Amino acid sequence: MREVATVLSIEAPGEVTLVEEKLGEVPDGGFLVETVHSGVSAGTELTYVKGDNPYLTSTWDRGLGLFLEGNPSIAYPVRGIGYMQVGRVVETRTRAVTEGTLVAMAYGHRSGYVADPMRDRFVPLPGELDPMLGIYVAHMGPICANGLLHAAADLYGPDVHHLGDGVRGRRVAVMGAGVVGLLTASFAMAYGAAEVVVVDETPARLAVAAELGAQTLAAADDPAVELKRRWRHGPDDRGADVVFQCRGQARALALALKLLRPQGVAVDLAFYTDGAHEVRLGEEFHHNGLSLRCAQIGRVPRGLAHAWDRERLSHESIALLTSRGERLRRHLITDVVGFADGPRLLAELARRERHTLQAVLSHDVHEQRG
Predict the structure, then answer these.
(1) Tens digits of per-residue pLDDT, 36-74?
(2) Calpha distance 331→182 (Å, rounded)
(3) Is pTM, for the whole model, over 0.90?
(4) Cβ atoms 111, 90 nearer than 8 A
(5) Stretch 330-350: mean pLDDT, rounded?
(6) Confidence of residue 369 (pLDDT cuts 50, 70, 90)
(7) Could you tell me which residues come within 8 angstroms of residue 111 by beta carbon, excluding any fewer than 6 positions away?
(8) How far apart (Å, rounded) are the C-alpha atoms in residues 356 and 1?
(9) Which residues pair with 216 in a beta bridge?
C-alpha cells in the first residue's frame, strides 16, 4: 500500500506547492483510491490562491448562517481544496466497492485518499462514461442540476417530478459561459427548453457555447433589448422565462435581471467574492416584480430534500455526460496537465497569466495536453 499522498497546498496568497501527507491504514469498511483525474475550479479554488475567500477573513457560524468577525474559519496553509476527483480503487476492505472501480469523489487535489463509505460520498462511474468527464459527477454536475431543480421548484413547489420541469418548453437565458454556465445550458437543452441563449463577454467562450448547441449573445451588444424583442409572451410581457446566473460578477447579475420577463425568476449559481455593488434593485428588479433564488449546492429547494438528494443529482449528471459526452469532452476540457504542474497552473490562473475553461490535473500521461 502507498504510505503517503502528494497534496496540493496553498501556503499563502499566491504561493502554491506540493507537500506529502501520510495516508494511514485502510480501516475495516474503508477503501483506498489513487487519483486518475482532478478537475480545477477556476472560481472557488482561486479565491484561496488570491486570498479573497470570506472564510479566510471571518468566522462562518453554521448555526446562525452568518459570517462573523473573529478568527477565520480557514487559515493558511489551505490543503485539500478541489471537489472534482476521479479515483481508481486500489485496495478495499468493504463490499460497497470493488478493487479496480473508478469512482467520482470530492476529496481535494491529492494523489491518493483513504475513504470511509460511512463518511465519504462516492459515485461509481459507468463504463460507458469518459473517465475524464467523471470529474463532474460528484459535485459540479449536481451544482448545475440543482440550479434546474430550483427553476422547477419555482413553478411547481414540492411537486417536482422531473429535473427539466422548470425549463421544458420555456425560453432560457444563461449568464456566463464558464463551466457552470455551459453545463447548465447543456442540461436545459437536454431537458427540452424551447430556446437556450448563453450570454458572455468573451468571444472564445461564446464559441464553445455555440459548439455545444446553444444560441449566443455578446454581453456588450445590449442582449436585454435583443432578447426582449425576440421573446414575446403577451402585451408588455417580454423576456426570458428563467435566467441562470452563473458568473460571479455584479454586472452579470445586473444584466441577468434585465433579461427577465415580468415576474420572472433568476436562479443564481454564482459566488460574489467582491459583493454586488452594481446591482440596482430600484430598476428592473422592483418594477418588474422579479425573483432571485440562490441555488447554492448546500441545499435543494425547500420540501424536495426527500426526493432530490445529491445521489439523484449525480445520476442526472451521469445521464447528461453520457448523452452529450463527446461534445462536452472536446469543447469543455481545455487544459490537461500532470499533477506535478498543478501549483504552476493555479498560480498562473490567479495572476491571469493563463486562461482556461476547464483544467484537469491528470495522472494519466497519455492524456496530457494544454
Answers:
(1) 999 999 888 999 999 989 899 999 888 888 888 888 899
(2) 10
(3) yes
(4) no
(5) 95
(6) low
(7) 5, 6, 7, 34, 35, 339, 363
(8) 35
(9) 198
What are 149's three cell numbers? 431543480
Cα–Cα distance, 207 to 312 (Å, whole number): 31
Instruction: Mark 192-230 as b/e (b = at least 16 C-beta within 10 Å).
Output: ebebbbbbbbeeebbebbeebebbbbebeeebbeebbee
**Residue reference for cell 469518459:** 130
Q: Which of 285, 295, 294, 233 is nearest to 263 (CA)?
A: 285
CA atoms of 356 and 205, how far apart (whole Å): 10
| Lookup: cell for 359 | 483544467
3-state secondary structure the chain: CCCEEEEEEEEECCEEEEEEEECCCCCCCCEEEEEEEEEECCCHHHHHHHCCCHHHCCEEECCCCEEECCCCCCCCCEECCCCCEEEEEEEECCCCCCCCCEEEECCCCECEEEECCCCCCCEECCCCCCHHHHHHCCCHHHHHHHHHHHHHHHHHCCCCCCHHHHCECCEEEEECCCHHHHHHHHHHHHCCECEEEEEECCHHHHHHHHHCCCEEEEHHHCHHHHHHHHCEEECCEECEEEEEECCCCHHHHHHHHHHEEEEEEEEECCCCCCCCCCCCCCCHHHHCCCEEEECCCCCCCCCCCCCCCHHHHHHHHHHHHHHCHHHHHHHHCCEEEEHHHHHHHHHHHHCCCCCCCCEEEECCHHHCEC
How far is residue 12's CA from residue 317's CA, in Å, rounded to a whole number?
34
For residue 319, give the C-alpha cell. Answer: 445521464
pLDDT tier for residue 350 given thresholds of 50, 70 and 90: very high
Q: What pLDDT sits at residue 279?
A: 85
Q: List, for residues 283-322, the tens digit of each pLDDT value.
A: 888 888 999 999 988 889 999 999 999 999 999 999 999 9
pLDDT of residue 276: 79
Distance of CA 187 to the CA centre of its chain: 13
Q: Which residue has the cell 427553476?
A: 151
- Count, residues in the chain: 370
Residues 154 and 223: beta-carbon distance below 8 Å = no
Do residues 171 and 241 touch, judged by C-beta distance below 8 A? yes
